[in-house]
Structure formats: C-alpha cells, structure tokens
Amino acid sequence: MARMFYDNDADLSELEGLKLCVLGYGSQGRGQALNLRDSGLDVTVGLRKDSPSFAKAEAEGMKCASMEDALTDADLVAMLVPDTAQAKLYRDFVAPRLKPEACLLFSHGFNVHYKQVKAPRENDVVMVAPKGPGNLVREVFQAGGGVPCLYAVEQDATGRATRKALAYAKGVGGTRAGVLATTFAEETETDLFGEQAVLCGGATALVKAGFETLVEAGYQPELAYFECMHELKLIVDLMYREGMQGMRRAISDTAKFGDLTRGPRVVDDGTRARMREMLAEIRDGRFAKEWLAEDAEGRPRYNKLMAADADHKLEQVGKQLRDKMSWLKQSAKKPEAAKKNEALLVR
Question: Can you give the three-state secondary structure of 126-137, one letter per residue?
C-alpha cells in the first residue's frame, strides 16, 4: 500500500512567516487561497488589476495585488492559472521576479512534465494537487473536512521541498483526508488518461452512445435521458461511497447480471487497445503538443466540437427535464447538507 500523509505528518510552521503568492483566482486559486488564509498563512493573490476576479477576491477578504507586486519577494509562488496560460505567465511575470530558493508550486504537472516551464536549479519545484474541483476544496474545508491531495517534488534545492509541500497541503485541508506521494510525470499522465478515457471523455461518449441507441430504436428521448444520464449519478455516488461491490449490493440481481455479463461487451479488448493508444499519446507528449497547438491557433476544432455537443438532442432534452426539477435548483442554492455529507466522506 502507498503511504498516506495526514495532519500529524505536516507542520504549518514550515510556511509561517513566509510570503505566499497565489496566481489566479479561478476554481483552484480561490479555493486554495481562502483555505490557506483561514489556516493562518500570509497569502497574497496576484491578478491583473482589470480582472473581474480582483474585486471578487477583495470582497472575500483576500489580500490582492498586481502580479508584479504579489511576486515581489514571494517565498512560495502557486501557479494556479489554466495549463495553457502558465508558460507565458511564467516567462513574462514569474521568471524575472522569482527569487533564489523560492518555492514554485503547481496543482497539475502538465507544464513541468512537458517542459513548458523550467525553473532555475536553485528553486524548489513542488506539486500539491487536490483530487477535486476548487469549490469542493473550499466547501469541504469549511465543513471541517478535506479533499485528498497528491504531492510531488521535482526539484529540492533547499532540502525542505517535501516539508513545504506537505505544509501547503495541510494549509488547503488535504492532510485531513490524506496526501499521497507521486511524481510530476505520474500525476500528469494518470490525470490526463483518467479525464480522457473514463471520467470525461469515456463517460460522455458512453452516455451519448447509449442515448442515441435508444432514440434511434424508437424510444422516447425523455426516457432515454433518464436511463442513460439522470440515473448515472445514483450509480457513481454508490461507487464513490462503497466501491463497485457496494454499488452492486444496492442494485437488483437483474441489474447485477446485466452488469457482469454485458459490460465486458461494451468495454472489450478493442476498447482497451484504444485506451493503450491514448495513454501512449499522453506519455510521449503527442497529446500535449496537439493541445498546445490547438490553443495557439485559437481553438478552432475545440470550439466546433463544443458547439456540436451543446446542440446534441441529449442536452436539449436534458435541459427541458432539469428545468422542471425544482429540487435541483434548491439543492444548488442550499448546499449545507451536501457539504456536511461530503466532509464526512473524506475525513
């Protein structure tokens, strides 16, 4: 079993008295910055003065400054802007102001692993990657729990990089749930593969294919939506809490038999071969090269694919049905119970 690190394994004093600079106030930037502040650390959020996030961060009690000012004399710089913006941000703002022995921190290994960002040898380079979106990092922390994290050390110039990373993980609440040691390469490659093959790409493609199969066979689109999309949350929540066997204990024997005998016909040796191809593209850098080129060209393919999915019949039917589910909107407005439940799950 891999070793997990918890509160007793990390010491916030490693970061006390230091100036922490968080660049970005999106999902992860906001969640991590607020948690670090509430953990008693000195945090400054670096943003463009004309950024809408500047006023938002100030309204939430964060100390804010221009990127130039936030970076001046910073002891730790957290790069929490999107992957595609990090290399330019590093070149234009961070590199000229990164003082010797300062710690450069990432929450995803993409730019370091694919050599878009390369820090001087005298700087620590670490990663603390919460395994959940920034809003959940914040909500679970406020409820007394924490979101599990990964941590990695790419460069240990000071001999204290691991202690700094674990202290940072404690500051954002990760050690309340557990922090797992990894490498930049392992985190990057497994994260991209999970997104593409299972969590996002695999799941959405499977849902659309199931919906289209039923509709093409003459079944009502609304019924197809309920069977292939709406009920997915029930199954995922059961697996999240109890694993696959726990999920199977909660469903009928008929459903279990279909699961065990028909599932392997959907995900077969051909599927696994294509998964291996996707993983190879991630590991050798082909996916990163493709994505960075797409972004540099203004994202024409990305925008076309996004627009096509937005007009998919599954989305049209789903929106109509969800608009009539008043409890969904009420749940979004009053998440306290969900917060407490989530906190209990990850303690």
Answer: EEEEECCCHHHH
Do 290 and 282 contact (CB within 8 A), yes or no? no
Q: Say whether pTM exceeds 0.85.
A: yes
Residues 6 or more apart whose Cβ sits within 8 Å of residue 22: 29, 32, 33, 36, 43, 44, 45, 46, 78, 80
Cα dihedral 52, 56, 58, 63, rounded to 10, equals: -80
For residue 252, which phi and psi values (nearest 5 degrees)? -70, 160
pLDDT reading at 281 higher than 80:
yes
User: pLDDT above 90 covers what percent of the chain?
Assistant: 91
Token pair in block for residue 42: 């000195």
Residue 345 phi/psi, 5-degree rounding, is: -70, -35
Structure tokens at 255: 């459903």
CB 29 within 8 A of CB 134: yes
Could you confirm whether 113 is annotated as catalytic? no
**Is pLDDT of 340 > 50?**
no
- Which residues is 150 bridged to in the sheet? 129, 180
Please tell me what DSSP assigns to residue 92.
Answer: I
- The catalytically annotated residue of 108, 113, 230, 312 is 108
